[in-house]
Write a sequence for this structure.
């Protein structure tokens, strides 16, 4: 199955971001991708954290959800919508949510980012908990590919990558592909991005597809990029460093089975 990680450099204007996402998704579909995954915050990287609150949507409808559903139908794609802010409670906080749309435009899965990023090196300071409410549970969905193969896919977002127990839970449910839409900072990405992604692939003998924000944004923030596809042996099959891109790669069920047969580590778990 051909898949696409969509790399973006999202700005502060929602309609512009959606237009860029639409063009990149159309490019992925034209190249034969069945599944395309957008990065975290694809719809908005605001000037301040609270800008997310201004574009929040209730689950079931809104400009971003309507865009994802419509584009999935028009392009005949499975689309994993990076993340968008979904309303909880009185709207003073939101969930950073990943929604999955099938080619008919139906929303078939929702994952809310569980681990909220906090970082302070004296120069850069981030604390997502100021406006985000964490999710509480892993979410896995099945994708029936055109060739009849069924792929079990585990959802995660960005900072979740540092918590291997989440991915082990997916492995225990038979996950074949792990998705990590992200907006890693340049500082943390340069240090840990590829290392962590390859580790998650190796320890769970699964493909990892990680679309990222990558470049200097309108708000002055710089993200690491390097969207990639890694195979179950930890080999990086495709990667793009910085700037907008459609990172195309192929999932090979025979390769997956071969890796798991040669090194049956998933059968050797005792915890």
């Amino acid at each position: 199955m051909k898949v696409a990680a969509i790399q973006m450099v999202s700005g502060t204007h929602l309609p512009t971001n959606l237009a860029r996402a639409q063009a990149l998704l159309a490019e992925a579909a034209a190249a034969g991708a069945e599944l395309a995954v957008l990065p975290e915050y694809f719809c908005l990287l605001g000037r301040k954290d609270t800008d997310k609150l201004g574009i929040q949507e209730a689950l079931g409808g809104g400009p971003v959800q309507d865009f994802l559903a419509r584009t999935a139908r028009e392009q005949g794609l499975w689309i994993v919508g990076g993340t968008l802010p979904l309303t909880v409670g009185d709207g003073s906080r939101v969930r950073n949510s990943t929604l999955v749309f099938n080619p008919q435009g139906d929303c078939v899965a929702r994952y809310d980012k569980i681990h909220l990023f906090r970082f302070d090196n004296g120069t850069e300071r981030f604390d997502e908990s100021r406006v985000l409410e964490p999710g509480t549970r892993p979410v896995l969905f099945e994708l029936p590919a055109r060739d009849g193969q069924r792929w079990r896919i585990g959802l995660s977002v960005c900072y979740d990558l540092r918590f291997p127990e989440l991915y082990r839970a997916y492995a225990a449910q038979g996950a074949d592909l792990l998705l990590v839409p992200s907006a890693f900072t340049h500082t943390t990405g340069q240090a840990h991005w590829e290392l962590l992604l390859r580790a998650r692939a190796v320890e769970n003998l699964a493909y990892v597809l990680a679309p990222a924000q990558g470049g200097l944004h309108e708000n002055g923030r710089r993200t690491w990029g390097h969207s990639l596809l890694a195979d179950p042996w930890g080999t990086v099959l495709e990667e793009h460093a910085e700037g907008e891109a459609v990172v195309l790669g192929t999932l090979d069920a025979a390769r997956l089975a071969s890796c798991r047969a040669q090194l049956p580590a998933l059968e050797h778990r005792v915890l």
